[in-house]
Amino acid sequence: MSPFSPGRLLYLVWHRPRGWLANTRRMGGFREVWLTARGRNAMEAAAHRLPPVTVGAAALEPDRPGLAFLTGRRLWFQTAFCLHTFLRHSAERPPVLIVSDGTLTANQSSTLARLFPGVVIESPSETLARITASLPPARYPTFHRLLPGHILLQKLACIHPPDSPPRLFLDSDMLFQTRPIALDAWLHSPDRPMFMTDVVNAYGYPMDVLAELAGHAVPERINTGVSAIPAGFLDWDRLDRWLNALVSTRGTSYYMEQALFALATAGRPYIALDPHAYVVAPDNTSARDARGALHHYVNLSKAHYFRHAWRLAVTQ
């Protein structure tokens, strides 16, 4: 689309401002948005001052279960806080892979490497070479067609490709508050997939459509803020066929990646994390009281995350 096309101009002068105003009202008004933005800036500045923590050496044990993150220019400091709080509370020191979404700057990458000695930070060109070898475009055309425009699909393709070791993926907008016993246990014995429990089903497609594709009822309320996948669990040929079937009949969805994880897990054993200990969208009371081992700050809970929660996390 041309930058001066009628559709683009309509988006810039009408739809985008309307969306911004609607989000401002949802967040409580201009002052609340300003306070949250100020807290976000303070959190980013504080990330530079986190004390370094060494992670496991992936080169010494390439098949060892590890942590993985997908991050970029706007998320790097949240990744730093999530990983730092995990390492503070966990009994494990797994190897850590950080994959750039294509926007991570050289300075941000250097800061993450300084904060977490031993971390593997992969450039976009390195990631592309790895997944092209692991997921040949001719065999997996739907994924390769959609990956550039749907970044959350990278949680699957870049983190859990066919030849990857067991990996525990963590979204960046999360903070650990006590020892994550279930996650530590999975890193010792990654025998089945493990996910957070969402507040609703957020798959982007009707449950009956997904069940028909899978041949089983799909699990309820999978949230892939935590997505722990054993080596060899995912059938990538089926994933590409499922993705093509969904997109060709129902269109794309922001939640396509969660739908695919649900399809892959249908009819198979998996671990659903206790939602009282691994909390999606904590309210202000539970966030201030630091209830639970892990908080995943999505939607309206981001206001508390940027304004208060990260400050509490560094003092625990």
Key structural traits:
single chain; alpha/beta; Spore Coat Polysaccharide Biosynthesis Protein SpsA, Chain A; 10 strands; disordered N terminus
Outline of this structure?
With 316 residues, the chain is α/β, with parallel strands linked by helices. It has helices spanning 6-26, 30-47, 76-89, 106-115, 124-134, 141-146, 154-157, 181-188, 207-214, 236-250, 256-265, 284-288, 302-313, and strands at 66-71, 96-100, 120-122, 167-170, 174-176, 194-197, 222-229, 271-272, 278-280, 294-296.
Task: Give a written overview of the molecule.
This protein has helices spanning 6-26, 30-47, 76-89, 106-115, 124-134, 141-146, 154-157, 181-188, 207-214, 236-250, 256-265, 284-288, 302-313, and strands at 66-71, 96-100, 120-122, 167-170, 174-176, 194-197, 222-229, 271-272, 278-280, 294-296. By secondary structure, it is α/β, with parallel strands linked by helices. It has one domain (46-313): Spore Coat Polysaccharide Biosynthesis Protein SpsA, Chain A (Alpha-Beta Complex). The strands form 2 sheets. It has a 7-stranded mixed beta sheet with strand order 3-2-1-4-7-6-8, sandwiched between helices. Strands 5-10-9 form a 3-stranded mixed beta sheet. Helix 2 (30-47) runs parallel beside helix 13 and helix 9 (207-214) packs across helix 11 (256-265). 39% of the residues are buried.
Strand tally is 10
Give helix and strand order, one letter per element, not per position. HHEHEHEHHHEEHEHEHHEEHEH
Q: Could you say which overall geometry the principal axes of the C-alpha atoms support?
A: globular
Which CATH architecture?
Alpha-Beta Complex
Radius of gyration: 20 Å
Helix content: 40-55%
Strand pairing plus helix content: what structural class?
A: alpha/beta
Tally of helical runs: 13
CATH class (first level) name: Alpha Beta
Main sheet: which strands, in order across? Answer: 3-2-1-4-7-6-8
- Which residues sit in consecutive blocks of at least 5 with pLDDT less than 50? 1-5, 7-13
> How much strand content do the residues show?
5-15%
Number of structural units classed as domains: 1
Average pLDDT metric: 90
The end-to-end distance, rounded to whole angstroms, is: 49 Å
CATH topology: Spore Coat Polysaccharide Biosynthesis Protein SpsA, Chain A
Largest sheet: 7 strands, mixed
